[in-house]
Amino acid sequence: xxxxxxxxxxxAAAADNGERPSPSKTEAAEAVKKxxxxxxxxTAFRLMTGIVVLLFVVFVGSRFLERAALKNxxxxxxxxxTSAAAVPEKQMPEQESDAVPVVNINTASAVELTKLPGIxxxxxxxxxxxxxxxxxxxxxxxxxKISGIGPALLEKIRPxxxxxxxx
Length: 167
Fold this sequence. Notes:
Helices cover about 65% and strands about 0% of the residues. The protein has helices at about 1-15, 25-85, 95-100, 110-115, 120-135, 150-155, and strands spanning about 105, 160. The longest helix is centred in the first third of the chain and has 62 residues, at about 25-85.
């Protein structure tokens, strides 16, 4: 018992002087083990906390992105539906043929001839002048004899011209 009393007296004296009592080797080893265990626990705790936070962020982020994608899809459907209704389709040549009347080039006036695509006032007047000077057109290719009418323009107006004699 004297040893324990001696240790307590030494520890009390050291505490009075502001000194730290010197621990025994066993106490020192236990303190080191305790410190290592606390560090390991602290590191593991931080790691687990980080994983939980990461999983939460991924979960919430994925839900957010899923909803955003859904809203985006609905938005584009709405835009496409309204834009399809608002913007008329590009007219095809068949639709244009309904807008351009068929013109008899042997009886049409210059004003009627200007309704043909690519035929302006000057060319219409030239067609009428040629017809008055040389007579009726017998085939569409006769229009190639008129200045300013080439094969490309003839093919462009061919669906809209006729040579029939009006009754």
